[in-house]
Amino acid sequence: MAQDDGNRRARFGGRNEGTRGDAAAARGTLDRDLEKLTHVEAASRALTGGLTAPALASLFLLLSGAVAYGFAGDQSGIVLVVIAAVLGGYMALNIGANDVANNVGPAVGARAVTLTGALVIAALCESAGALLAGGDVVDTISKGIIDPGQVGDDAIFVRAMMAALAASALWVNLATVIGAPVSTTHAVVGSVMGAGIAVAGFGLVDWPTMGAIAASWVISPLLGGIIAALFLAFIKLRLIYRDDKIAAARRWIPILVAIMAAAFAGYLAVKGLKRIWRPDTATVLLLSAAVFAATYAVMRPVIRRQSAGMENRNQSLRRLFRLPLICAAALLSFAHGANDVANAIGPLAAILHAVEVGDIAGAVVVPGWVMIIGAFGISLGLFLYGPRLIRMVGSRITKMNPMRAYCVALSAAITVIVASWLGLPVSSTHIAVGAVFGVGFFREAFVERSKRRRRLVSGGAEPPPLSREERQRRRLVRRAHFLTIIAAWVVTVPAAALLSAVLYWALDLVMA
């Protein structure tokens, strides 16, 4: 009997184990099928997302050509105008994808605003700046590099401008692909120079102006980095390392925000609104002083009210800097749209003027539809391709928080004003990224100095030297990104010039 019960249990146990094994196998098969389905869905989303951006960009370029044909379709050179409009739209897309990251990247990296919020703020402010106060197109066409009047033939000038527009857009596109924020202004400068050399040789180029631009490659990021580091040092000493952080915040944050407001008032007066208003130095100083006083009067009770009940910790300070940082990102975007939209529509306006009037040396009037192509293209390029560079500037070079990002934004505004007074042709991209580097390198030096001081106070022995891998791990600025960006900056003008010359010679063979 016992043997029969054992045999029965063995049979049922084996059957149960077999059933459990079958169920496990079925679950395993189901899991694998679901995993495959998940991979298929992920691949489908990636494919769809990968195709959506180029499709929308292509549609925008087609619409740009259609708009050009609709507004300028009754003249003999309409084909050139349509091609130039497509190239101008392409350049605008690349400006949005690359250049705008410098304005909102630090705010996103500091988590003061989400990526989606930053995209919306930047798109609205860039478009407003471009449409309301678009920069001086005549200066952007030649940048003082070449004299259009020396070219002579309007057909040659049109080909040169088309080559310059295409070359600058292609170079900025390449820089965006490799993750390097570069100056679109310098790309246009190099392209115009290269086309001018291809047309009439090296004698056509104003080399003293080129020397000043080359000097700005060094001066812009260094000045931006130094100013940002100085403000971060001030914040650390006067706010972060104080026993009563809230009292320090109530005293100093209204002053810091007022400095930022005054700097941006001067920035917009000097750069962002130059198409509609050109004040003298005394007026700019008076305006900045008035804005400083008004902002301080408003922010002092606001900061006191916001800080009521806050804990005495650094997180509270970060919260108090968020709103000023968002405002700074919006103002930077407005000024950038006003100043740099001309990089996209300047050569386009010059081509249109040459085709319509046949005059290549006179003042150029920018039609409204040309400005709309530039403004909308910048915003669309920002939405489609901007997040990659925003993340690069905001978090991959060095870690950001609201105080550090605030120092970057403030440095950008102050450096532009100082450089304008000194007559230096600076790049907002170089300034902003240089400020990010300055903040990161200052933090490295500050941390190392603090460790050394603690060892001296405690009488501790000097630690053994660190390995190369450990030193790299402890660095607060990623050297790989640093070297990539610096290399892209150095080669932007010569690379854009060479590409523009090659494109001009190709166009000359096809169109001559």
TrEMBL record:
Cellular component annotations (GO), alphabetically ordered: membrane
Any single biological process term in GO: phosphate ion transmembrane transport
Stretches that traverse the bilayer: 51-72, 78-96, 108-135, 155-175, 187-205, 217-240, 252-270, 282-299, 320-338, 360-385, 405-424, 430-446, 482-507
InterPro entries per UniProt: Phos_transporter
Superkingdom of the source species: Bacteria
Keywords: Membrane, Phosphate transport, Transmembrane, Transmembrane helix, Transport
One Gene Ontology MF term: phosphate transmembrane transporter activity
Places the protein is found: Membrane
Keyword ATP-binding in record: no
UniProt membrane topology term: Multi-pass membrane protein
Pfam families linked: PHO4
UniProt similarity note: Belongs to the inorganic phosphate transporter (PiT) (TC 2.A.20) family.
Designated name of the protein: Phosphate transporter
Organism: Marivibrio halodurans
